[in-house]
Design brief:
The protein is mainly alpha-helical and 415 residues long. It has a single domain (10-192, 222-405), classed as MFS general substrate transporter like domains (Growth Hormone, Chain: A). The protein contains 17 helices and no strands. Its main location: membrane. Residues 16-407 form the Major facilitator superfamily (MFS) profile domain. One of its GO terms (molecular function) is sodium:proton antiporter activity.
């Protein structure tokens, strides 16, 4: 994976990928490692249990708050300084959770911590696409997806283990310290990709920031049907998985009365399936274009969600629900990085702004959709969760059909 588009050596490539991977992992870990302790958080802060999914959804919505501004700012000032600011903000807000004494302050900090996710989407993802050629960029996006999925896969188990020795406050403090180390890694190894001459002769030109011009560009993007379909589809495709992450503590621990360890173990099949899908994507990239990959991925994606809906109708237990989610998760893993690439290159506009709006739309859909599923009873019964999660995920199909119809076969080819 040495086909970089800018002139950096192998050591810097490795350090950049490692620091970027660690930052993304931490932004997800800050949510998932604390999930087993969320009932303890609400008890200690004297809050209602409804704040368990609310805190998770606020974290997702925090990722949307600044993306609209971060993308255009990074187009002018560069990806590197913006990502350094983002990692610092994330680390400080994690450390501040150690001192919180109310659920309102806790939720506010969850929102601020979620902004770190916004920096990942709006700043680091475009940088990755600009450093590497297309096939390698898609592979690295899938790899980052795998690493990020280690958080919901191992995060609950790690949280259970850490809670044997640490309080939830001390876990946040540890996350903040780890974010400090990541900041050092980004400072040492992250290259600048804006305003730099590429090896193919092109230059990622700096785009001067202007409020009026920025909103005009956003308006043009919102009028681009292919971009809008891809961005909305990204959010809806991930909605069942996001709803599962947010509601699993209530469904498994509170409703089904499983132990925290059993709750953690039941996460393994679902997130292992997403990783398997990402690995299949890496192999299929050698012989298939991205639209072809998405078409293949829709088979396990739709099958899993239809089985999940059947579980709701038949009143199936936990094992069939998790098995259905796992089939769906294979399709999600195969398609997510490919659909993101199709969204990013659906327009010739600068990738910072495009990535920002893509992230805003997709994360808003996931956050609001997860909140809606929780509000209509998704956390009270397994059948309700299965039905609403399946319907939410299947809503992406008309969008995917439109996207594939308007994407030419040579767009985003493997090489």
């Amino acid at each position: 994976m040495q086909r970089t588009l800018i002139n950096i050596d192998r050591r810097q490539v490795a350090g950049f990928c490692l620091a970027l991977t660690a930052f993304e992992l931490l932004t997800y870990m800050a949510s998932d490692v604390i999930m087993p302790a969320m009932l303890d958080v609400t008890t200690e802060l004297r809050a209602d249990v409804r704040h368990v999914p609310n805190a998770f959804n606020l974290y997702l919505l925090g990722g949307v708050c600044l993306q609209w501004l971060l993308g255009p700012l990074s187009d002018q000032y560069g990806r590197r300084p913006l990502l350094l600011v983002g990692s610092a903000l994330f680390g400080v807000s994690c450390m501040a959770a150690f001192f919180t004494d109310s659920i309102e302050a806790f939720n506010l900090l969850r929102l601020l911590q979620g902004m770190g996710l916004g920096f990942v989407v709006a700043v680091s993802y475009p940088a990755l696409q600009e450093v590497f050629c297309e096939a390698d960029a898609v592979r690295l996006m899938a790899l980052l997806g795998n690493v990020a999925l280690l958080s919901p896969l191992l995060g609950p188990l790690l949280g259970i283990l850490l809670l044997e020795w640490l309080s939830w406050r001390q876990i946040f403090l540890a996350l903040g310290c780890a974010a400090g180390l990541v900041w050092v890694g980004l400072f040492l190894w992250m290259p600048e990709t804006v305003g730099v001459e590429r090896r193919d002769g092109h230059r990622n030109a700096r785009v001067p920031f202007s409020w009026r011009f920025t909103f005009q560009r956003y308006g043009a993007l919102l009028g681009n049907p292919r971009f809008l379909c891809a961005s909305l589809a990204l959010g809806l495709m991930s909605l069942p998985l996001i709803a599962w992450i947010g509601l699993a503590p209530l469904l498994l621990v509170r409703v089904l009365e499983l132990t925290p360890l059993e709750y953690g173990l039941w996460q393994i099949p679902v997130f292992s399936a997403v990783i398997a899908g990402n690995l299949m994507l890496d192999r299929l990239l050698q012989t298939h274009s991205l639209p072809q990959l998405v078409q293949l991925a829709l088979w396990p994606f739709c099958l899993g969600l239809l089985l999940l809906a059947a579980c709701a109708v038949l009143g199936a237990g936990l094992a069939p629900v998790v098995a259905s989610l796992s089939v769906y998760a294979v399709g999600l893993g195969m398609s997510n990085a490919a659909v993101y690439r199709l969204a990013l290159f659906s327009t010739e506009d600068s990738k910072g702004l495009v990535s920002a709006l893509t992230g805003m739309i997709s994360i808003a859909v996931m956050g609001l959709g997860g909140s809606l599923i929780a509000a209509i009873g998704g956390g009270t019964r397994l059948e309700y969760f299965s039905l609403w999660a399946a319907l939410g995920g299947l809503m992406c199909l008309p969008l995917m059909y439109r996207l594939l119809q308007t994407t030419t076969p040579d767009v985003a080819s493997p090489q």
